[in-house]
C-alpha cells in the first residue's frame, strides 16, 4: 500500500516549541509504523518561510527575509536530526522546485476559470504604511464574540474569516484602527467545487467526526471566493496577469508544499520529474495529514478545493488527524512571554527519546492536554525506567547470570505461562488496532500494560528460586520473559527507534530492528540458544530534586541552547 504522510509545515520564525514538534512527531511515529508493516511511505513536510511576520522581523534586523529563514531552516534540520525524525524530505517553501510548482499549479487553475481578479477593500495601516495581512488585523468574531479573533480565522470557534468580517478591527502591530483602501487581487472561486467537497466529506469514512462535521457545517454556511494574492513583497511572486509586486497568500503556498515536496523528493532520489504523480494521482494512495485543530479548514476545505479545481484526479485527503491544543503548565505557549520549552532547550534537559515518548503520552487526542514537569518526571521515572527498563534489565541479567548469556530452551511451561502469552497477544492486537486508527497515545497504553504484566509475571514466578527447584520450568519462564522483551522492542520502535534498537541488539540480534517487518517477527518466537550482548540499563531516572530545581534547570538549558543558536535566532521575537 502507498501512503503520503504529511505534517503541517513549521513556520520559520523561530525554533519549534513542544506543541509544534508534536505534529511532526505524530507523523514520524505513524510513518515508521506503516513502514514496519512493509508499506511504501513518503513522509514530507518542510519550513514555511513566507509571510509578513518574517518580512517585518528581517526588516528590523536589517537583513533579507531569505537570510533569516536560511538560518532557521538550517537549524531546524539539525535539531530534527537529533530528535530522530525520519523524513523522506524536509523541504522549504523557498525551494526552487516548490516555487515553480506553486506558480504552475495555480496558473492551471486560473486557465480553467477557477481563479479570477476582483477589486476589494483591504485594511491599510496609516501608521505602519502598509496593507495589513489578514493575520495582522484583530477584532471581535461576528460568530462567537471572541474579542481577539484574527482577520483570517477565529482561534476560538475556528471559523475562517476576512478582515471585513471583524467587529472593531485593529492593527495587530500598533493597535490603531486601519482604513480601507481599494486594490485588486486574485480569488479562487470555492463555490464551483462546493458540491464535490460535500460529496467527498460525506463519503470519507476515515475522517473523524469532529473534522467531518465541522467541515460540512462550514460548507453549508456557504463558501465564498478566497483571495490567493497579497500586497506584500516576501513570498512567491504571483504568476497572474498584471500582479507585479503581489505574492501568493502563504496558506495556499504552504498547502501545495505537500505536493511539491513529494516531487522534489523523487527528483533528488532518482532525477525523475514524474514519479511523484504515481503517488498523488493514484486512487490507491492514502494521504494523511497531522495538524492542530486550528488548521482543520485549511486541510479539509482549501487543500481539497485546490486539488479538485485542478481537475487532474489528485488523491484527496484519506485522513486529517487533528489534535486539540497542548498547553504548557496550564498556559498557551508564548515566545514573547517565554512560556514553554523549545526544541533545542528540551534536548538540553533530557534525551530526545524521552521527549518522543513523553510527548506522545501527553498527546491531546480527545481534548486539550497539559504538559507539566510533574507528569514528565512520572513518565520518565515510572513508565520508562520502572515499568519498561526495569523489566528488561532484570530479565537479561538473569539470562546472563543463570544461563551464561544464552537464551534457554523452554523445556517446561505451565498454564500460567501459557495464559501470559495469551494476554500479551491480546495487548499486541489492541496496540495494532490503536495504531491503525491513529490513536497513538492509546497504543502506548498497551506497551505499558505488557511491561507491567511482564514485571508481575517475573515477580510471581520468581525464576531465580525456580532455578534450584525446577530448572526446566525456570528456563520456560525466562524464555517467556525474553519473548516479551522482543515484543516490547517491536512495539516501541515507532515511538523510540534508537531505544528499541538498543533493546534489539541486547537480545542478541546482529542487525537493526529497522530492517525487519513487524508481522514477521511479532508472530514468531525467539530462537533458544541466541546469545545476548552486553547489557546496560535502558533508561536513567531523572534526579530526585528535578522538580525542586526545575526553574534553574530550564534557565540553564535556555542559556546553553541560546549560546549555540545561529546569530539571528538568539533574541528573535516575531508575533504570529
TrEMBL record:
Residues spanned by motif 'HIGH' region: 10-20
Looking up Pfam families in the UniProt record yields: Anticodon_3, tRNA-synt_1g
Which residues are noted in the entry as Zn(2+)-binding? 141, 144, 154, 157
Motif annotated as 'KMSKS' region, chain positions:
332-336
- Which SUPFAM superfamilies does the entry mention? Anticodon-binding domain of a subclass of class I aminoacyl-tRNA synthetases, Methionyl-tRNA synthetase (MetRS), Zn-domain, Nucleotidylyl transferase
Q: Which UniProt keywords apply?
A: Aminoacyl-tRNA synthetase, ATP-binding, Cytoplasm, Ligase, Metal-binding, Nucleotide-binding, Protein biosynthesis, Zinc
Provide the binding site for ATP. Answer: 335
Check the record and name the CDD domains matching this protein: Anticodon_Ia_Met, MetRS_core
**What's the cofactor?**
Zn(2+)
**Methionyl/Leucyl tRNA synthetase domain boundaries:** 4-396
Per the UniProt record, which EC number(s) apply here?
Answer: 6.1.1.10
Q: Where in the cell is it found?
A: Cytoplasm
Cofactor, how bound (note): Binds 1 zinc ion per subunit.
Sorted alphabetically, the Gene Ontology BP terms of this entry are: methionyl-tRNA aminoacylation
Give all residue intervals belonging to the Methionyl-tRNA synthetase anticodon-binding domain: 407-549
GO MF annotations, alphabetized:
ATP binding; metal ion binding; methionine-tRNA ligase activity
Q: Can you state which reaction this protein catalyses?
A: tRNA(Met) + L-methionine + ATP = L-methionyl-tRNA(Met) + AMP + diphosphate
Q: Which HAMAP family match?
A: Met_tRNA_synth_type1
**Entry's family note:** Belongs to the class-I aminoacyl-tRNA synthetase family. MetG type 1 subfamily.
Tell me, what does this protein do in biology?
Is required not only for elongation of protein synthesis but also for the initiation of all mRNA translation through initiator tRNA(fMet) aminoacylation.
Name it.
Methionine--tRNA ligase
Give the organism, scientific name.
Caldisphaera lagunensis (strain DSM 15908 / JCM 11604 / ANMR 0165 / IC-154)
Write the gene name: metG
Amino acid at each position: 500500500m502507498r501512503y503520503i504522510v504529511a505534517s503541517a509545515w513549521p513556520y520559520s520564525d523561530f525554533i519549534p516549541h513542544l506543541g509544534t514538534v508534536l505534529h511532526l512527531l505524530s507523523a514520524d511515529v505513524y510513518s515508521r509504523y506503516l513502514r514496519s508493516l512493509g508499506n511504501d511511505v513518503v513522509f514530507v513536510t518542510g519550513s514555511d518561510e513566507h509571510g509578513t511576520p518574517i518580512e517585518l522581523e528581517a526588516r528590523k534586523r536589517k537583513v533579507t527575509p531569505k537570510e533569516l529563514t536560511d538560518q532557521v531552516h538550517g537549524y531546524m534540520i539539525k535539531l530534527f536530526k537529533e530528535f530522530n525524525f525520519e523524513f523522506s524530505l524536509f523541504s522549504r517553501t523557498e525551494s526552487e522546485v516548490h516555487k515553480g510548482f506553486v506558480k504552475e499549479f495555480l496558473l492551471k487553475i486560473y486557465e480553467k476559470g477557477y481563479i479570477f481578479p476582483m477589486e476589494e477593500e483591504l485594511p491599510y495601516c496609516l501608521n505602519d504604511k502598509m496593507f495589513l495581512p489578514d493575520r495582522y488585523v484583530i477584532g471581535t468574531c461576528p460568530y462567537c464574540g471572541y474579542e481577539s479573533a484574527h482577520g483570517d480565522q477565529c482561534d476560538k470557534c475556528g471559523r475562517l474569516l476576512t478582515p471585513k468580517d471583524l467587529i472593531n478591527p485593529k492593527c495587530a502591530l500598533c493597535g490603531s484602527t486601519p482604513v480601507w483602501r481599494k486594490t485588486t487581487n486574485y480569488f479562487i472561486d470555492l463555490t464551483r467545487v462546493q458540491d464535490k467537497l460535500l460529496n467527498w466529506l460525506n463519503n470519507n469514512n476515515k475522517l473523524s467526526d469532529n473534522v467531518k462535521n465541522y467541515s460540512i457545517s462550514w460548507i453549508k454556511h456557504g463558501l465564498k471566493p478566497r483571495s490567493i494574492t497579497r500586497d506584500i513583497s516576501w513570498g512567491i511572486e504571483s504568476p497572474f496577469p498584471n500582479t507585479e509586486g503581489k505574492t501568493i497568500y502563504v496558506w495556499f503556498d504552504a498547502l501545495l508544499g505537500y505536493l511539491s515536496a513529494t516531487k522534489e523528493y523523487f527528483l533528488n532520489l532518482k532525477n525523475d520529474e514524474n514519479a511523484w504523480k504515481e503517488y498523488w494521482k493514484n486512487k490507491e494512495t492514502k494521504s494523511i495529514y497531522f495538524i492542530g485543530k486550528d488548521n482543520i479548514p485549511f486541510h479539509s476545505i482549501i487543500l481539497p478545493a485546490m486539488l479538485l479545481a485542478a481537475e487532474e484526479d489528485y488523491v484527496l485527503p484519506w485522513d486529517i488527524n487533528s489534535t486539540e491544543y497542548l498547553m504548557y503548565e496550564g498556559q498557551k505557549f508564548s515566545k514573547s512571554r517565554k512560556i514553554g520549552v523549545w526544541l533545542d532547550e528540551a534536548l538540553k534537559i533530557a534525551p530526545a527519546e524521552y521527549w518522543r515518548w513523553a510527548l506522545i503520552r501527553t498527546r491531546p487526542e480527545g481534548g486539550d492536554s497539559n504538559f507539566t514537569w510533574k507528569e514528565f518526571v512520572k513518565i520518565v521515572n515510572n513508565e520508562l525506567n520502572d515499568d519498561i527498563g526495569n523489566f528488561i534489565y532484570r530479565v537479561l541479567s538473569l539470562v546472563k547470570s543463570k544461563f551464561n548469556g544464552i537464551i534457554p530452551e523452554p523445556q517446561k511451561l505451565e498454564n500460567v505461562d501459557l495464559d501470559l502469552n495469551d494476554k500479551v497477544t491480546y495487548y499486541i492486537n489492541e496496540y495494532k488496532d490503536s495504531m491503525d486508527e491513529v490513536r497513538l497515545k492509546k497504543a502506548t497504553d498497551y506497551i505499558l500494560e505488557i511491561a507491567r504484566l511482564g514485571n508481575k509475571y517475573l515477580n510471581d514466578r520468581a525464576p531465580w528460586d525456580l532455578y534450584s527447584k525446577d530448572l526446566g520450568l525456570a528456563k520456560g519462564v525466562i524464555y517467556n520473559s525474553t519473548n516479551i522483551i522482543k515484543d516490547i522492542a517491536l512495539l516501541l520502535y515507532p515511538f523510540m527507534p534508537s531505544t528499541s534498537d538498543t533493546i534489539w541488539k541486547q537480545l542478541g540480534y546482529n542487525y537493526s530492528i529497522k530492517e525487519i517487518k513487524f508481522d514477521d517477527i511479532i508472530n514468531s518466537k525467539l530462537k533458544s540458544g541466541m546469545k545476548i550482548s552486553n547489557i546496560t540499563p535502558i533508561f536513567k531516572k531523572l534526579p530526585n530534586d528535578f522538580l525542586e530545581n526545575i526553574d534553574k534547570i530550564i534557565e540553564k538549558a535556555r542559556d546553553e541552547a541560546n549560546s549555540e543558536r545561529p546569530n539571528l535566532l538568539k533574541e528573535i521575537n516575531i508575533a504570529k
